[in-house]
Amino acid sequence: MEAILVKDQKAAAFVMEDGTFEGVYRITEKVCGDVEQVTGVRPKIIKWQGELQPAQVYVATLGNSEMSEAIAEEEGIELSSLCGKRECFLFQVLKNGSLLIAGSDKRGTIYGLFHISELMGVSPFVHFADVVPAPQKEIIFSEKDSMQSKEPSVKYRGFFINDEWPAFGNWTFSHYGGFTAEMYDLIFETLLRLKGNYLWPAMWTSSFSLDGPGEENARLADCYGIVMSNSHHEPCLRHSEEWDLVRGEDSVYGNEWSYLTNREGLIRYWRDGLLRSGKYENIITIGMRGERDSLMLGEDASLEQNISLLKEIITEQRKLIRECVGENEPEMLALYKEVEAYYYGDETTPGLKDWDGLDGVTLMLCEDNYGNMRTLPTEEMRSHRGGFGMYYHFDYHGSPVSYEWVNSSYLPKIWDQMTMAYDFGVRDIWIVNVGDLKFQEYPLSFFMDLAYDYEKWGSSRIHAPQDYLAYWVKREFGGWFYEAQQDAVYRIMQQYTKMNHNCKPEAMRADTYHPVHFGEADKRQKENERLEAETEKLLSSVPEEMLPAFWELVYYPAMGSANASDMQLYAGKNSFFAKMGAVCANDYAEKIKACIEKDRLLTERFHQLLDGKWDGMALSEHIGFVNWNDEECRYPLMTFIEPANKPRIFAMSEGGDVCTAGGDWTKKLIVMRQFLDPAVSEASLLLFGGSKEKVPYHIECKSPWVLPGKMQGVTDREEVLTVQIKRDEITDWENDHRTYDFEVCYEGGRIPVKILLEKDLPGCPAEAFYETDGMLSVEAEHFICNEKADAGAFYVLPEYGKTLSGVKAYPQTKTFFEMAEQIRQAPKLTYQIYVREAGEYEMICYTAPANPVCQGGSVYFGCAVNGNAPQKIEMIPDGYRSGEPSCAEWAKMVVDQIRVVRVQVTLQSGENEIGIYAGTPGFLLEKLTFVRKGKHLPESGLGLPETRRTNR
After folding, report:
1. pLDDT tens column, 508-536
2. How far apart are CA 308 and CA 318, in angstroms?
3. What is the mean pLDDT of residues 383-398?
4. What is the pLDDT of residue 337?
5. Tens-place pLDDT, residues 757-796
6. How far lies 14's CA from each of 1, 46, 122, 124, in Å?
């Protein structure tokens, strides 16, 4: 059996009956538009005549359709499996060559209609990101396409348009005259194509229920089956901006946003909001906060006073809802910022947690605004009637640094954190702050698909982030791009999102990555060069039809991010070399200028796409934030130096930061420490010009084992001088150590260079990571043994975190031990390391940002050295307050995207085994670094890179 939708330039008609929901009819028209865009033929929509005809598409909603019952009886189809289900649809090829789409409810029917679009290769962003579907001459569905959809994993799934100025706001005013129904029609359609059903509308300067014009926004949302709600500080279907429109000394609502002094005015204000908008489908926000996202009673009020007042307010609000809207209306209380403290209370003040006044209310939990889970429902709390929601962020306007430009949310982290929320029982509402929505299409797709089908993308699928990116690339570009082009898009998306995850563009500074230590600035720049080169190369081969989509989804965010990164990397080098007096500082200043111009040009070109269709959407500031917001943000400082009037050369060992021009008075010595690693036989000495003219130099070296890359040369800017060591020929070792000297000589001075060497490591195990110069580093996935426990096991999370990957124990809801004597029962990872000297070492554990997931709880793991008694390692310091800008520990963690835990350990000379045990939820290890006491670990953004294994 097959159902022909389009063939030979003829299209099957869509059949609907009297009483069809208006929203279903509207979506049918949009799907007909999709068919036309794919095939060039637009199907007609006709009325049901009471008889089943061949080659038609029948669209029905159970409980509102005699047609579906007649078709089911004639075709022998069982519809009972749909009855009572939430948002499900049957997609059935009929025996007579027709197609039946039957929804269990309005949204189910709409999802079924958009399933046609999905099968035709139409992207959910066909309009919002201009993803043009590939043309097809015919559309035919076979019996294998027949299916019944599942119920969504999360009941309410959606996003919050927020922080909408200057980008989204300017765009919608210039194209739609404001936050109107015409604009929201595009937003609603995109949400439904993503299988979402829930929206918090823009609210900085707009009122959803007034700007349609009038109630047209709310009416249209209800027509489509979109469940509307309001943000955490907008109760009773009122919008934040509405209050300023109606308040006043002579207003019936009063003038003060204070329940203590204006109780009757606020009750009337809330009642009128419920009477106006309660006829539509909503989740009604309850509770109260201060104006403009502030405290309700101010800093001086006690916890007890706040809780008591909030109870009174909620009681009155729920009474109003019953009177004005009805019984059992969905209600939500957001436990955001200070409200969370009111919910839990403290040792002396009971909170709202056990108060029966919240029975049936969905409790909206919130991460820390930077994508890291905070308190999650305990097993006891999960029985709460009303369930739990999660408010997540891809965009944030607040301390310590706002992020509102292109996507900086990394799929592996989103997957890790949101699967944790789901596994902890947060399954009723998922809402994500997407800012302007533009440039968040990729992470939003994942967020929505994870919420819709957790069984497919959830915690049982460790490679879900990688698999999803491949799926997303194919969905958006597969109709036009060859496999090699799709692979390139995959790499570009992966690289730029990880780069922005490691440091959000707004937060990046000239010193985020050190200009010389570990060569990390050079490595970042080379990665950026590869990213930009691959993106530019791919752009040249993109079909014309897909150029706008490629620009919007890939080119602008990737190129803009790489350029913003380069700008700060050049600034770091400019500052470093200017302090040295090297002429190359001026070159880096010019490169900063070029990056600034490129940033402006990229924005201009984006705004010109499709005759300015998205003009305004790229206006968000994104460089050089010095405050939490964009106030006083600035481009990097550019320092220009005046070259010396006499010959001058500076020298520096690669990766080091000591430089000298070889003067008699300063007598600085350049030490090349790279050869302390027995595997290194070649390293680099860096030469920098400091004069107006080129300066000749020559090398003086007496050792036959030291081979400079050249013995003479001329430098005026930067030069890399390679130095080789003939390790195999050295005969004069001194207790496995050796030093050699040479000099770089020029007219202005003689630069002394000392080379330090270590001989091979005696008896070092084949898989051991060995110490060089008192330090070593191991990526978390490079354990030698992964021991499962009865309660769970560690798993490697590919590409997680700032460097290579992460390891985490599952089930992720499990606390594997509480007391130190229980540690050995937990899952264990063993790492093998080798050090030359016994003694005290600092073990630096780089872990994913983590907050306690239970009120008053902690995050910890276990550690044992060489089989000794394990220690319980607490990761959370006293006084820690997640989400509080005044907490320096939290602020540093979220900006750096890493938590650093330092543990003092005693190591023996030679081989050592380090055991890491799973502890609480939230512990996710990325890297281990060991530093011998007395040694200094150089500053850097990513820490000491992984050192070598013996056999590598």
Report:
1. 999 999 999 999 999 999 999 999 999 99
2. 16
3. 98
4. 84
5. 998 877 788 789 999 999 999 999 999 999 999 999 999 9
6. 19, 6, 18, 21
Query: How many residues comprise the chain?
Result: 952
Taking the CB of residue 594, how many other CB atoms lie within 10 A of it? 13
Q: Is the pLDDT of residue 25 over 80?
A: yes
Q: Give the Å distances, CA to CA, from 201 to 160, 172, 238.
A: 6, 13, 12
Tell which residue, 428, 247, 236, has the closest CA to residue 319.
Answer: 236
Asked whether this chain's domains 156-234+276-459 and 483-611 adopt the same fold, the reply is no
Residue 501, pLDDT > 90, answer yes
Question: What confidence category does residue 43 fall into, taking pLDDT thresholds of 50, 70 and 90?
Answer: very high
Neighbours of 858 (CB within 10 A): 18
* 664-717 confidence digits (pLDDT tens): 888 899 999 999 999 999 999 999 999 999 999 999 999 999 999 999 999 989
pLDDT on residue 300:
85
User: Quick one: pLDDT at residue 951?
Assistant: 58
The answer to whether residue 299 scores a pLDDT higher than 90 is no
Domain 483-611 falls in which CATH fold?
A: Methane Monooxygenase Hydroxylase; Chain G, domain 1 (1.20.58)
Residue with tokens 């550019």: 638
SS3 793: strand
Amino acid letter, 194: L
Pair of tokens at residue 720: 């890399």
Contact present, 418 and 153 (Cβ < 8 Å): no
Instruction: Give residue-wise pLDDT tens across range 123-141.
Output: 999 999 999 999 999 999 9
CATH number of the 156-234+276-459 domain: 3.20.20.520
Residue 523 CB contacts under 8 Å (≥ 6 apart), including other chains? none
| Pairing of β 284-286 and β 331-334 | parallel
| Six-digit token string for 192 | 């439904």
pLDDT score of 952: 53
- In 3D space, the residue among 137, 124, 114, 123 whose CA is nearest the CA of residue 477 turns out to be 123
- Answer CATH for 769-932 from 3.40.50.720, 1.10.3720.10, 2.60.120.1620, 2.60.40.10: 2.60.120.1620
The reported pLDDT for the residue numbered 811 is: 98
Q: Are 361 and 839 spatial neighbours (Cβ–Cβ below 8 Å)?
A: no
Superfamily holding 2-148: Chitobiase/beta-hexosaminidase domain 2-like (3.30.379.10)
DSSP 400-455: S--B-SS----HHHHHHHHHHHHHTT--SEEEEEEETSTT-HHHHHHHHHHHH-HH
**CATH code for the structural domain at 649-758:** 2.60.40.10
Residue 657 to residue 650: CA distance in whole angstroms: 12
Query: What are the structure tokens assigned to 871, written together?
Result: 């220690």
Q: How far apart, in whole angstroms, are the C-alpha atoms of residue 783 and residue 786?
A: 7
Structural Rg of the chain based on CA atoms: 32
Tokens 């104006």 correspond to 291
List, as own/partner pairs, every contact residues 524-530 make where C-beta atoms lie below 8 angstroms and the sequence separation is at least 24, other chains included.
Answer: 524/499, 524/565, 524/569, 525/566, 525/569, 527/495, 527/499, 528/499, 528/562, 528/565, 528/566, 528/569, 530/495
The DSSP line for 136-205 is -S-EEEEGGG-EEPPPPSSSEEEEEE-S-TTHHHHHHHHHHSSS-HHHHHHHHHHHHHTT--EEEPP-SS
Segments making up each domain of the chain, as ranges: 2-148, 156-234+276-459, 483-611, 649-758, 769-932
How far is C-alpha 706 from the geometric centre of its chain's CA atoms?
48
Beta bridge partners, 913, equal 832
CA 701-702-705 angle, to 5 degrees, is: 90
Mean pLDDT of the chain: 96
d(CA 414, CA 393): 10
Cα separation, 407 vs 425, whole angstroms: 27
Contacts of 451 (CB under 8 A, 6+ apart): 152, 153, 154, 157, 196, 418, 430
